[in-house]
């Protein structure tokens, strides 16, 4: 028996609110097999797992499985319950979601990751756990063992679309890159980043792979960089099929933006949040898909320019 098999299902009493259900606790969960999924709405790794969790919830709910999503925010703007509610609708999540703004449920599970899955049997014992993407067939087999059923797996039939599509792992050579100074790295504008003060920046002519830079007046904050005037831009050099940027308009918006790839509009390789000319609109805080390469994947330079001040950018992610 492993260490986690001796752990009992923690209570959800620390949840600030619930979506899709009345509050759930020991009386409601007693004698039930439970799958707990920790997520945050801007996490690309979670977005690529949600088609599987959604499929498991639908395939096994009549067998007694209860899926509970626990939304624990990574960025401050993700604490907005209405924004989480919008993400739940966009991702077609119909199972219960606990709002964990104070990290109470996170701490009760001693969790450290997004996404994280905890598999709890009908005796309330955590029988398995998995962090990150992948291992879908094995996870579904764990569900079947907890429920005492055995039939063809649904996981091989799952196909994510849009931002939910599986990454092109063979071509993915760029890591998640945070822009706020608390976790930011690989910043390439001359003079480095200035903490909590407005500064004018320039993009270097020889931006190196997996580095990023700013152009125009920006204020670097702990979680993000904030644009102080229209016309400012962010550039990065990456190697991946997909490029995303977590952004928010703050209290303003909508903010128009334009994406160029290697100095030209993306054309057929535009992401789901921009058109072929690279035009997009920043209307709410979330992850925006800027590029999905439909040709040969290689090292590319991306530049996103904003038509109004107030844009906040948090992290590049790739797929």
Automatic annotation (TrEMBL):
<dbReference type="InterPro" id="IPR036249">
    <property type="entry name" value="Thioredoxin-like_sf"/>
</dbReference>
<dbReference type="InterPro" id="IPR050553">
    <property type="entry name" value="Thioredoxin_ResA/DsbE_sf"/>
</dbReference>
<dbReference type="Pfam" id="PF00578">
    <property type="entry name" value="AhpC-TSA"/>
</dbReference>
<feature type="domain" description="DipZ thioredoxin-like C-terminal">
    <location>
        <begin position="174"/>
        <end position="319"/>
    </location>
</feature>
<dbReference type="InterPro" id="IPR041017">
    <property type="entry name" value="Thioredoxin_10"/>
</dbReference>
<dbReference type="GO" id="GO:0016209">
    <property type="term" value="F:antioxidant activity"/>
</dbReference>
<dbReference type="Pfam" id="PF17991">
    <property type="entry name" value="Thioredoxin_10"/>
</dbReference>
<dbReference type="GO" id="GO:0016491">
    <property type="term" value="F:oxidoreductase activity"/>
</dbReference>
<protein>
    <recommendedName>
        <fullName>Thiol-disulfide oxidoreductase YkuV</fullName>
    </recommendedName>
</protein>
<dbReference type="InterPro" id="IPR000866">
    <property type="entry name" value="AhpC/TSA"/>
</dbReference>
<feature type="domain" description="Alkyl hydroperoxide reductase subunit C/ Thiol specific antioxidant">
    <location>
        <begin position="28"/>
        <end position="128"/>
    </location>
</feature>
């Amino acid at each position: 028996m492993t260490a986690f098999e001796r752990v009992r299902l923690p209570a959800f009493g620390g949840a600030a609110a619930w979506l899709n259900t009345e509050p759930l606790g020991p009386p409601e969960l007693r004698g039930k097999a439970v799958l707990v999924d920790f997520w945050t709405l801007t996490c690309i790794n979670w977005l690529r797992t949600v088609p599987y969790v959604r499929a498991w919830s639908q395939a096994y709910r009549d067998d007694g499985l209860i899926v509970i999503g626990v939304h624990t925010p990574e960025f401050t703007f993700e604490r907005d319950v209405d924004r989480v509610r919008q993400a739940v609708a966009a991702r077609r999540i119909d199972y219960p979601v606990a709002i964990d703004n104070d990290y109470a449920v996170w701490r009760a599970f001693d969790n450290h990751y997004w996404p994280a899955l905890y598999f709890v049997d009908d005796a309330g014992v955590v029988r398995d756990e998995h962090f990150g993407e992948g291992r879908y067939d094995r996870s579904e087999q764990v569900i079947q063992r907890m429920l005492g059923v055995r039939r063809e797996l649904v996981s091989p039939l799952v196909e994510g679309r849009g931002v939910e599509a599986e990454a092109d792992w063979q071509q993915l050579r760029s890591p998640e890159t945070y822009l706020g100074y608390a976790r930011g790295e690989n910043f390439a504008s001359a003079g480095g980043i200035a903490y909590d003060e407005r500064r004018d920046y320039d993009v270097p002519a020889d931006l190196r792979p997996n580095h990023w830079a700013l152009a125009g007046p920006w204020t670097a904050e702990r979680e993000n960089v904030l644009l102080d005037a229209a016309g400012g831009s962010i550039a990065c050099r990456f190697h991946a099929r997909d490029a995303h940027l977590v952004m928010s308009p703050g209290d303003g918006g909508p903010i128009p933006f334009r994406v160029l790839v290697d100095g030209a509009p993306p054309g057929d390789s535009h992401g789901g949040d921009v058109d072929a000319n690279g035009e997009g609109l920043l209307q709410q805080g979330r992850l925006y898909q800027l590029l999905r390469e439909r040709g040969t994947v290689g090292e590319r330079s991306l530049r996103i320019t904003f038509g109004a001040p107030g844009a906040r950018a948090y992290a590049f992610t790739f797929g």
